[in-house]
Amino acid sequence: MRPSLIVGLFAGLGSAANINIWDVDSSCDPHIAALQKAYDDAADMASKAQRDLRFVQQARPKYSRTRANINEIREWDRIARAVTNMFGFEVNKAGHDPNDPDMADVLYVFDRMNTALQGNQNVPQGGYSGQHQQALLMCDTTPWDWIGRNDPDPLNPGLSLVASKPQDLGTGPGAWYYKERYISNGNPNSISICRPGVFAVTMTRWDLLTFCPFSFQGNLPGTIGPVDGRAGAAVGNTLDQYGAFSLSRVMIHELAHWYGAGGRGTDNDRKVTDKQAVGKNGDLIWYNTQTKKYQTAKDDGVLKATAYAYSWVSKLAKINQPPNDANSGPRQAIFNAESYAYFGMMAYMDSFDWADDGKAKDIQNPLVPSNP
């Protein structure tokens, strides 16, 4: 191919997001192409989500009969419905209220995400702990080593681990160590980050994002996500088709954890977590490992069901009546990572209205006011 044709082909493509603002571990070498693709997709979705949110901070356009005006109203309404469906609060038709904490909290995440993904410096630059030059991005947990409490500290071999790092070890029998990070979970057999069915785990306290082997197994890395699926989407498609098993959805979910945090990244600081799922009336949902079913009763041995995938995210955003009012609504949805992933998908796949049921629907024209 002639050089001029190569330039022509690539001139229309967006530049890759700089994944090297992270310390990308060698464990990611076998998966770097899939990881970079997911990172680029997350950057595209985050950028579109931010633009959408900024658009509806403006007052809803007044009706004026022109095609351009109608399209603006259609777009404003589409975004507003998506915001309510994913985050639980209604956008002010008169324009953004600067005293409204809901929109500010959502933009906190997407603004920080975009600053990092569209630039060349992470946010925070060295992570939350203040102990590292860069946050660490891994693709396996095998590099971690178990250090017993009386074994030499790898960073200070003249002292035992308990003498050198009492604040990291506590009363535990030892800690897992890798790249100046100590994780004390009391289990010398497993660091317990990656478990069956877990895509990835973000640990802000240790400046650590780990993509688990499950993310790269079988067809998962090649699953068509929202960025590649946008052009071929059709009425009746579901968001879960593009999100449930796509690495780009996993990526923006984990980045919501990271950029939604604050302070030192501890449990006492601002955090975007994985909230417990709720039912249609706001009852907390549990997963019974014996029956393999979801239930509202907190029986022995059940696990918290988390608000993953469209159905659980949309239920989490819903405002419910007492005594379940604290289980859902904006203050729960805004601090749930999956809510950001699915809003990002809705924003990017903007040829359709996905709100209310997670299915692609034609965007309706606004109603003509009685006195336009």
TrEMBL record:
Coiled-coil blocks: none
Top-rank taxon: Eukaryota
InterPro entries on file: MetalloPept_cat_dom_sf
UniProt cross-references to Gene3D superfamilies, sorted A to Z: Collagenase (Catalytic Domain) (3.40.390.10)
Disulfide bond listed as a keyword: no
Signal peptide: 1-16
Keyword list, A-Z: Signal
GO MF, one example: metallopeptidase activity
Protein name: Metalloprotease
Lineage of the species this protein comes from: Eukaryota, Fungi, Dikarya, Ascomycota, Pezizomycotina
